[in-house]
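Notebook entry, structure prediction.
Reason for the run: the old model in the group folder had no record of what sequence produced it. Starting over properly, with the input documented here first.
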Amino acid sequence: MSIILLLLIMQALHFVCTWRLYVLAGQKAWQAAIPVYSAVVLMRIIQRPWWWVILLYIPVVGNVCLLYTSDAADDTPCV
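New structure, fully documented this time:
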């Protein structure tokens, strides 16, 4: 039971942080609540192709892609 509670808290925290990012980037806040769609919107914000979302879910490739997208997010203006 405690693991489920921890996962719910982590998901809520992720939603709040992503919600704030999407609002700053000019997107709608509800887009942060839908798991895979939020990744598509994130790729749109950092100007990457939508199919990179698929790469994020491949075990080894996803880690490399995540590092590359987080580096690209530093250079992309949000406003």
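Summary: Residues 30 and 39 are 13 Å apart (CA to CA).
The old model has been moved to the deprecated folder.
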